[in-house]
Amino acid sequence: MEPETRKKVVVIPCSGIGKALGSVSREATYELVENLRKGVTDTICLALLVSGDKESLQLVQDNKCVTVDGCPLQCAEKNVKLAGGDLAASFRVVDALRENRKLKPKRVAFLDDDGVQLATVLAKQIAGKVDEILRT
Amino acid sequence: MSEYLQTVFDKFELRVRKGYYYTEDGLWASVEGGSVRVGVSDYAQRTGGDVAFVELVKQGSKVERGAEMGTLETAKTTVSLLSPISGTVDQINDRLAEKPELVNSDPYGEGWMVILVPHNLEDDLKALMSADDYFKLMLKKLETEHKKLETR
Amino acid sequence: MVDLPEKKVGIISCSGEACIEGTISRIATRIVLEQLRPEETVTICLPLFLAGGEEERVFARYFPTITVDGCEKLCAKIGTERYSGKPASSIVVTDLTKDRQSSRLHSRRKLEGEALTVAMEVAERIAQEVDEVLKHWR
After folding, report:
1. Level-2 CATH architecture, domain C9-133
2. Predicted structure pTM score
3. Residue B7: closest CA among chain C residues belongs to which residue?
4. ipTM of this predicted structure
5. Among residues C2, C5, C3, which one has the least CA distance to residue C134?
6. What residue in A sits closest to B98 (Cα-Cα)?
């Protein structure tokens, strides 16, 4: 298969700016897309998708999507569904926090060590799901 | 007529349910026949942050007024929940184990925590604040928060 | 009712992940909120705003807003105009970085070196706009 036509999993974080959990969602996505599953994953701006950008809409409709939300408001999941995206899985940072209680992120702009670690843990979980999705 | 006293701080609307009783820490108590339902206020959940865990004493436990009846763990901190009244725990909100976010989304409704059979209701209620008094306290806390920002 | 400040400015930042300018807009906005103008500003979470977050939209309808976009797609500006009204001011980060070599801005994930300098400059610019908006509003 030509690289250009190989499907990727599109990972969309909420990137909420008001809470540290939003920063963790963003960092986890970067860790996945730039490191753990580089080449088989991609990310897009949630705001661009919600604005109705044609390219973004096409991307989420043509590929499996995974959303990474900071908090239970789940803006990324809701908006990807509204955009008609092929949603294969959803993750919430708050659930990763429940499994790793010591890793409480304390800063929003520049994540502290606990925040970065939590993002790494979450990224690994998402990587496992990405592998599952790519196998099907 | 609204069921709530409310104010706006920054972009957030903060509500205090009328007819409930309150502790200074922001726990509310609602008298329902012979029982008392307990939860946390809108201001308390807002300042605490996204709730990740709610741990509560077991059904059947006896709690004293002011003693710990559980803990609330958020993305930011862990808060001790001090019982507003003395009583025996009759029911626990089991839904909070799987959906702790109910404390944030509906603190006066589905986010309730325990139902107590009170031991000394009349005396305990006298030690609590009315909704009006808690609302004034909340406004004072908001003003202090604003002044802290001013002096930075 | 306590005498809270009546005038606050809502900062709506794009926070886009796809390019470094999105990260710069995010960090610059947080710097304004946390350090430069903490009592005069409020952040509006753009995804929540676009998804229908009531508190965000009501605030943006009644209080002045400044949008900070990473690129010319202007998600924050267009979204604000659509759901709440014209922002008092709009900043586009690529307008401020066009004279800099993009190769020196490096990673979109973690701001360092020149990118961090740019974020500070954007933050100062936002702070100046906040002052202007409040001067005319008061």
Report:
1. 3-Layer(aba) Sandwich (3.40)
2. 0.88
3. C1
4. 0.87
5. C5
6. A95
